[in-house]
Design brief:
Elements: H1 2-20, E1 22-25, E2 40-49, E3 52-56, H2 64-71, E4 76-86, E5 89-96, E6 108-112, E7 117-127, E8 134-138, E9 145-150, E10 161-163, E11 173-175, E12 188-192, E13 200-205, E14 211-212, E15 222-227, E16 232-238, H3 239-242, E17 248-252, E18 255-259
Parallel strand pairs: 1-2, 5-13, 14-18
Antiparallel strand pairs: 2-7, 3-6, 4-5, 4-6, 8-9, 9-12, 10-11, 15-16, 15-17, 17-18
Length: 260
C-alpha cells in the first residue's frame, strides 16, 4: 500500500511539474509576469483579432513561421520607425518587419486577411521577458513626443489613440476617450505629449524602402546624420563612423540608410 501511495504521489508531482511549464498568457486582464521573468516556458496565448489591422505586443519572441502558421501567410507585421509633422497632422511611419518576426516587448501593428476570431499562439521553450514595451519619437520642429506602448494589463482609454475595429482597414489611430473597455492586455496604443486632439495618419513603408549603408562608398566624406524622426544624432562625421552607429534606419544626405 505504501508503494502505491509513493507511485501516486510521484505521478501527481510529475503532472504538476509539467503543468507549471506552460504559461497561459491572459490577453484581456493581463498577466503578472514578475515571477516568470527570464524563465524559459511553454507559452500559450489565445488572442482575439479582427480582419484588418490590429495591434500586438507580447513578452516573448514569435518567429515568422509561427506568425504564418497562426495568422496565415498573408499576414503583415509592421513597427513604428518614426513620425512626421504634415500640415499640422502627425504622420506615423510604420515599416514592414515580418521577416524579423515579433520581438519581445515591442509594439506592432498586425494585419490579418482571414476570419475575425480567436487565434491560438503556442510557443515552446519561450524566454519570457517582463520589460517595458514602448517606443518614442519626437516630431521634428516641435516638442511633441509620440509614444507607442503596450497595455500589459487592461488600461483606461482616456487621453490615448487606438485602432477601432470599424476603422482598422488602414490602421487608423483615433481618439478613444469614449471607449469604455479601454485597451485589453497585449494591445497597443498611441500617446501624444500634448493630448489626443491632433489627427494621426498612417504611412506604410516596405521592408526594402531604405538604402544599405554600403551605398555610402566614400569613407572619408563628412556628413550629418539624422534619425528617422529628423533629430540630428551625429554632426560632421565621416562615413566610416556612420557605419559604426547602432543598427537602425538613419537619414544621410536626404537618403534613408540602414545600418545592419
Amino acid at each position: 500500500m505504501k508503494r502505491f501511495y509513493f507511485i501516486a504521489a510521484f505521478v501527481i508531482s510529475a503532472f504538476t511539474a509539467n503543468a507549471q511549464q506552460t504559461l497561459n498568457l491572459s490577453t484581456y486582464s493581463g498577466t503578472n509576469l514578475e515571477k516568470y521573468d527570464n524563465k524559459t516556458l511553454n507559452v500559450s496565448i489565445n488572442r482575439y483579432v479582427f480582419n484588418g489591422w490590429n495591434t500586438i505586443s507580447l513578452p516573448v519572441d514569435v518567429s515568422t513561421d509561427e506568425l504564418n502558421e497562426v495568422f496565415g501567410n498573408d499576414c503583415k507585421l509592421e513597427k513604428l520607425i518614426g513620425v512626421e509633422n504634415v500640415n499640422g497632422k502627425v504622420k506615423l511611419n510604420f515599416q514592414d518587419c515580418k521577416a524579423e518576426g515579433i520581438k519581445a516587448n515591442t509594439p506592432y501593428i498586425l494585419y490579418i486577411s482571414g476570419e475575425t476570431g480567436t487565434k491560438k499562439i503556442s510557443i515552446p521553450n519561450a524566454l519570457v521577458q517582463d520589460e517595458e514595451a514602448s517606443v518614442s519619437y519626437t516630431v521634428k520642429g516641435t516638442n511633441e513626443v509620440v509614444t507607442m506602448s503596450c497595455a500589459k494589463k487592461q488600461t483606461a482609454a482616456k487621453g490615448l489613440y487606438g485602432v477601432l475595429a470599424k476603422d482598422n482597414t488602414e490602421a487608423t489611430f483615433v481618439n478613444v476617450d469614449d471607449v469604455k473597455n479601454g485597451f485589453y492586455a497585449t494591445r497597443c496604443f498611441i500617446q501624444l505629449s500634448s493630448g489626443n486632439d491632433k489627427v494621426l495618419t498612417t504611412n506604410h513603408i516596405a521592408a526594402g524602402d531604405v538604402s544599405g549603408i554600403e551605398n555610402l562608398t566614400n569613407e572619408d566624406e563628412v556628413v550629418d546624420v539624422y534619425n528617422i524622426s529628423g533629430i540630428k544624432v551625429a554632426s560632421q562625421v565621416k562615413v566610416s563612423e556612420v557605419k559604426k552607429l547602432p543598427k537602425g534606419v538613419y537619414v544621410v544626405k536626404e537618403q534613408k540608410i540602414l545600418v545592419p
